[in-house]
Write the structure tokens for this entry.
Amino acid sequence: MKRAKEALVLLLAGGVGSRLNILVQKRAKPAVPFAGIYRIIDFSLSNVMNSGLTKVGVLTQYKPLSLMSHLGSGEAWDLTGRSRGIKILPPRTGEKESDWYHGTADAVRRNLDFLEHNTAEEVLILSGDHIYHMDFDAMIEYHRSKKADVTVAMMTVPKSQIHQFGAGIVDRNDRIVEWEEKPKVARTNLASMGIYVFDYRYLLDSLARDREENDFGMHILPRAIAEDNVFAYPFYGYWRDVGTIQAYWEANMDVLRRDSGISPQKWQIRTNVDTEGRLADRSPARYGGNCRLQNCMISAGSRIEGTVINSVLSPGVVVEEGAVVKDSILFEDCVVGRDAVVDLAILDKRVRVGERVVVGYGDNHGCANLRKPSHLYTGISLIGKGSSIPSGMQIGRNCVVDSGVGEDMFPGTTLADGESLINRDES
């Protein structure tokens, strides 16, 4: 029997991910930190590694430098050697957005030479921006047992959410007989996870048929379902698209909950500990005699003198005496000053919160952000990479402080609920 390791993996990691707001201002969505020490792409790559797959092409596009640095040679995921490897596939176009990939199928089509130089039995197509644990070996064996041309990983979701996904209607044998991409009216609760197994030759032929077919969900799959053999592979585990601030925050909080179904350690998720000195050179975390910790994750190199409750702290975070961090996510090397409060917020790397600052002031959680009401509407405030908040400042709910904002850029001592402070030098 042929083993799944003969399959070639294409990992789509070029999306803008604009709904993550300032978290993707300087990095690609798959490179966004997650659960303290990981990045989002670590989950897909670790699933590849744990499934015994050995050849991966990573299709990058939007602000790829930190992602490329993180991937390195692929050694962290055992993807180096004569018969294994990870290949970064940047778009071979100009710098204008009009030159970028026009969809998932277009991205693969523009890298046909990589496919042709790496022949395989099947091609496994993944997204690099989902949090999940999955055995791709089992999915590929299922694909072979069905003699399928295409197999789509699918899971049940509430019908109220089906408009966010590609939706499939299946027969008694799990063959997909109808397909709707993000339907406004739900006819099924079976949703695509954006994970596909294609017969190698079938994929090449499909991409060659019509170069105007730019997207798998919108174009390739509907035609394949109408003409050929497409099956649904049922998935029942934890899976989350962390493409919004709310979903991203909830997934991080799930890591703190024992009954959530997510466990990076049990899933054997790996990361590149050598990227920018993230972990390899960090000392153990230090805890002061008066600190208080409750249901939190503290990473190496951190120093905690104050209180941390229900929060995720990346390496090198400092929480000074009297400070309180609650229901929040702090990226690397943030400093929360003495007697400051960070409540329901996400702080990007190297944010400095001055003494007696309150980030997340007041109880008006429902006052959506005025500039991006669809991004921030549950009370979460965002502080951009490298910003410094002056002592005594009060920042309300659903606020955004741009990357690189200095203390002298704050007008007054209050940023009201829903307001944004834009760094004109960054825009």
Summary: The chain has a mean pLDDT of 92. Helices lie at 41-50, 65-71, 104-109, 112-116, 136-145, 200-209, 216-227, 245-256.
